[in-house]
Amino acid sequence: MRSARILIVEDNLIVARDIERQLMGIGHSVVGMTGRGEDALRLALSTQPELVLMDIRLEGPVDGVDAAEQIRRYCHVPVVFLTAYADDETVRRASLTEPFGYLLKPFEDIQLRTVIEMALYKHGAERKLRDSERRFVTTLSSIGDAVIATDNQARVTFMNPVAESLTGWPQSEAVGRPLTEVFHIAHEETRKTVEDPAAKIMRLGTVVGLANHTVLLARDGREIPIDDCGAPIIDDQGATAGAVLVFRDITQRRRAEEALRASQATLVHATRLTTMGELVASIAHELNQPLMAIVTNAETCLQWLSGAKPDLDEARKAAERAVRNGHRAGDVIRSVRALVRKSSSGMTLLDMNGMIVEILDLMRAEIRRHEVVLSTELLPSVEPVWADRVQIEQVLVNLIMNAVETMSLVVDRPRALHISSEGDADNVLVAIADSGSGIELSKTDQIFEAFFTTKPEGMGMGLSICRSILEAHRGHIWASPNRPHGSIMRFTLPAAKNGASDESSS
Amino acid sequence: MRAPRSDLEPTVVVIDDDPDIREALEGLMRSVGLHVELFASPQEFLDRAPRISVGCFVFDVRLPGRSGLEFHDDLVKAHVQRPVVFISGHADVQMSVRAMKAGAVEFLTKPIRPQDLLDAIQLAIGRDRADRDAEARIAEIRARFDSLTPREREVMILVAAGRANKQVAREIGVSLATVKLHRGQIMRKTRARSLADLVRMADKLDLCLPEMQD
Lengths: 506, 214
What we know:
The complex is a heterodimer of chains A (506) and B (214). Chain A is of the alpha/beta class. Chain A contains 15 helices and 19 strands.
């Protein structure tokens, strides 16, 4: 039995001394003694006992029960009441102070010892529980996800700060309310209210994930898309004591997914317009419509003018229609010009390695779809270059797609695409190697000419445009065979020297 | 629908999603005296369901909602087709072959020479007129056939199959005189002027004639 520091509050001095002797005989120490309730709290604060023995009935303005209440509130020290006799009212009041035991005077040593031990044990256990709870609450409060716990009636028992901020309900107001009031969720599109997740968890008795496309309707009207799961809380007896729900705001994730999709769409579009053939076909189609209208209306005008009785009014109307159609053709040309302008963005300082990585990210799905194995070796010695971002992107996309497509017929060996970069103070060199069918040595120059193509549907403009772009940047591009199979396309760009360009960087 | 008469004013039905083209085509048709109905999509045509006596269609092969070729198939299946002139912004050999095989009158690529279009339309209307006339004649013959009594029909079929009166009498179990009586009625009601006429009518009506017996 451990020795405890005990405070005695007993107004009968003789009884008090007796108790003191008993305590010391057991092995405890008495840190203070008083007969007045009004002094008890002060004494408890100054002596910091581990336990207080309090006579229920004390003379004076503050009786034992009041003193015990004060001590409970301010000191968190267990109080054991000593009582010779107490009426019902006193006992009732005494219970409210949550004492740790009663001792009926006169008491034997053994009773004293037992009650004190039990009281200290119980107090210790309670303190451990409080510490444990505090640790849980701290943990739950500090994790980044929102946590809500409920009892087995689906009423909120706990909310961490993230849950408070997402739902708009402070814990103090949420506790006790039904979960659905605080955690109001609906399906994003149909707007149908989703089943109370706590009820579902307790019904199924297992971990449950919410359906996709769920939005949380916060108290202030905000709608937050969330992702979540929940689990039942099982008590010691194996019964369901409640549920705990963990959820997070996925707005950022959604935005990232959208941005990725948008970039991929832009890349696909840009890839398609990379070849002149595509651009021309698109312009031709757009212009065909107004052209046909013009010719038809002009013919109509002539029809009205020929014949025995020309109808001038109708002829004029037809001619006016033709003029309108002509304006529309002009609009088509204007928009094509804008499209062409979009294909050049102006010169800036470019990080080639960074750009290669970005483009590969966007093309990864396409590369994988063709079952091509990608490897890269981008050296840090690569200096920034001064170039037009959109145009260099086009070069990279073109070369990568060519490599991927040339390997689409390869079946007896791995389809390997290797992209590397290196540089010195003056130049950056990028190489794109494939394991395809390769280029005949005699043709390694010819492939860069306009209209040269080995693809049945190709127009042969891609490499010629790449060369034009690179040479306009004072770079070079050339092809050589890859061993044992395939080709390597290499290009260089001059490094941007400090202050080398007069143009202001954008 | 009342029986179509091919001397009525022909109508050209134009389906194209480009409003400028629709407007231009309408102007052109009117300038040569053709009546035209305009629609922006197959669905609009189906919704308004204009009654056309004789005429033709002019479609773009690329139409909102349904390809021009598929729409043509739908019309054929529903027995409301008219001769079609296809117009297209894309010169696609495969597509044009498919269109012609499906019975299109012509397949023109934009920008279309107005005279080519007018020629194709005239061809289509001519074809439609001929189709309508043939239909009308057959309907007429069918009406006359339907006016025969069941027994008269029996006799007509046997006579058209080449049976002599005596054989007919024996086969259906009546007297020779009765057969001759029936024959008289048949010739009167069908307005056939000879046995050959009768045989031709049976042919046009696609009647199933029994084999010659020995």
